[in-house]
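Sequence, please.
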């Protein structure tokens, strides 16, 4: 998709498809968007707007069909109300972009002209959000729908009216592509998306991005004493792996480790889930998928920091060999863990991966994990929890999320609750009870990061959508990719 600019004088109502972002003032005499049209056409448009119940200042997108022979075949009006809050302001641009994509799909438009008046698309953050809305809404996962209409997304060109120069959209395009590739990995059915498959994906990303790659297999993991990861994998026929990726920088200011939970399917193990509880559990590698996609986005970006990725990959299944509730296993850092619930497997595999990141000398560790159902109860489907003791890092991450339309809410690493993880027979148990479940999961992870600055994201509520919503489609959302890349760019 190309993005070009058009001078206001070049806007002709005969253009096939036109999107007008309009605010209440635009409806007056001094209108800034509608005055691009001839007086009669403007009058006709205003008249038509009434019929679609357009209300000045009310956000919404309205499609109106051709008015006269010299009018565009369709016009999409986006009602606009200027928002003070930075999140909602940026999100409004993303929403309009999303509507443009839906509209293009419906009308098979190859080109849209976007007239925005006072809604300023020359602000980079606004344009990025608008384009994200288009790219991310255009996504479809239909490779297994043999009988579906898989015509490609029709839009070839977006013409912006207003900005003086053609913006460089390559960075936002690669960022969106990376987000979509994370969605692809999450959406891939678990019979195909095995740990070994993810390893193959890591290999190709490493090759393209000239990354250092280490793949630790079962034998190597045993040598490294990654017993918690091995314990989780015991019930599965699939081989577990731990992948490490490194993107070097010359004279790095900082070494940042990204750790992603990579459970390719979570049945719960012997502490088995309900049938319904298992339905979306192919999404349990969303953290690992996001981390891998960050490296994809970094392919065309030079940062002054070294970025390392750690992906513990396994299935959580059942067999006569599966780990039992009550088993005690020694973690890589030497602490013993009583596994009382085999469904709390994410924290186990992360514990070993986090410890490895610490041992490798990271200056900052960030982990992403679809870790607890409790975070969904606490924050719902649109906010992920962020934990961390370093205020500045937390704040920067939350800000990067605001810019990306990915909401983060800080939750406490409550020392008061540490006792809930005390085991009668080992150093720790892997569950802390029903109350504050996302917090006790975070406290468990904290036992494995030592003094290294660390941020933990519980993305169980935000990694997967059950229906299409705004720029998100049913399935994996790619949550975290854009936020992390922007956060890393901010550190660099
Ligand atoms: N993968 C799940 C968490 C999850 C739940 C992700 C819903 C996405 C949607 C995780 O491994 C899990 O099962 N956690 C348990 C922990 C409990 C046993 C302490 C949970 O949340 O029920
Ligand atoms: Zn689980
Ligand atoms: Zn899980």
């Amino acid at each position: 998709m190309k993005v070009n600019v058009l001078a206001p004088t070049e806007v002709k109502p005969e253009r096939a498809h036109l999107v007008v972002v309009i605010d209440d003032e635009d409806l007056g005499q001094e209108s800034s968007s509608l005055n691009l049209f001839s007086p009669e056409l403007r009058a006709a448009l205003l008249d038509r707007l009434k019929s679609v119940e357009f209300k000045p200042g009310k956000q919404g997108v309205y499609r109106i069909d051709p008015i006269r022979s010299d009018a565009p075949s369709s016009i999409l009006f986006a009602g606009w109300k200027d928002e003070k809050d930075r999140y909602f302001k940026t999100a409004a641009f993303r929403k309009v972009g999303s509507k443009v994509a839906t509209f293009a799909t419906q009308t098979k438009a190859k080109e849209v002209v976007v007239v925005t008046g006072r809604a300023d698309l020359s602000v980079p953050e606004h344009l990025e959000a608008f384009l994200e809305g288009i790219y991310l809404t255009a996504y479809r996962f239909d490779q297994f729908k043999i009988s579906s209409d898989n015509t490609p997304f029709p839009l070839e060109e977006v013409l912006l009216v207003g900005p003086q120069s053609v913006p460089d959209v390559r960075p936002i395009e690669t960022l969106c592509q990376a987000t979509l590739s994370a969605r692809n990995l999450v959406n891939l059915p678990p019979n195909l998306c095995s740990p070994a498959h993810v390893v193959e994906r890591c290999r190709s990303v490493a090759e393209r991005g000239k990354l250092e790659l280490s793949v630790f297999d079962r034998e190597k993991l045993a040598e490294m004493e990654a017993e918690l990861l091995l314990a989780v994998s015991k019930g599965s026929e699939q081989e577990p792996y731990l992948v490490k990726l490194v993107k070097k920088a010359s004279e790095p200011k900082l070494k940042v480790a990204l750790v992603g939970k990579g459970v390719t399917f979570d049945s719960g193990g012997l502490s088995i889930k309900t049938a319904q509880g298992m339905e979306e559990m192919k999404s349990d590698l969303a953290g690992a998928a996001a981390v891998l996609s960050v490296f994809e986005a970094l392919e065309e970006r030079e940062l002054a920091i070294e970025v390392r990725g750690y992906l513990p990959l396994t299935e959580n299944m059942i067999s006569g060999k599966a780990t039992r509730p009550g088993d005690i296993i020694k973690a890589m850092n030497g602490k013993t863990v009583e596994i009382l619930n085999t469904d709390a497997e994410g924290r186990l595999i992360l514990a070993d991966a986090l410890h490895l990141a610490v041992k490798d000398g990271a200056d900052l560790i960030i982990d992403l994990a679809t870790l607890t159902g409790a975070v969904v109860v606490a924050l719902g489907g649109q906010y992920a929890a962020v934990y961390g003791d370093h205020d500045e890092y937390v704040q920067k991450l939350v800000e990067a999320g605001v810019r990306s339309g990915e909401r983060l809410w800080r939750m406490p690493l409550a020392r008061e609750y540490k006792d809930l993880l005390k085991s009668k027979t080992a150093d720790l148990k892997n569950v802390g009870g029903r109350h504050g479940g996302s917090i006790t999961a975070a406290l468990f992870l904290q036992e494995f990061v030592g003094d290294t600055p660390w941020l933990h994201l519980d993305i169980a509520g935000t990694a997967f959508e059950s229906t299409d919503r705004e720029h998100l489609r049913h399935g994996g959302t790619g949550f975290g990719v854009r936020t992390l890349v922007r956060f890393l760019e901010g550190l660099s």
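Residues 2-167 form a domain with the Leucine Aminopeptidase, subunit E; domain 1 fold (CATH 3.40.220.10).
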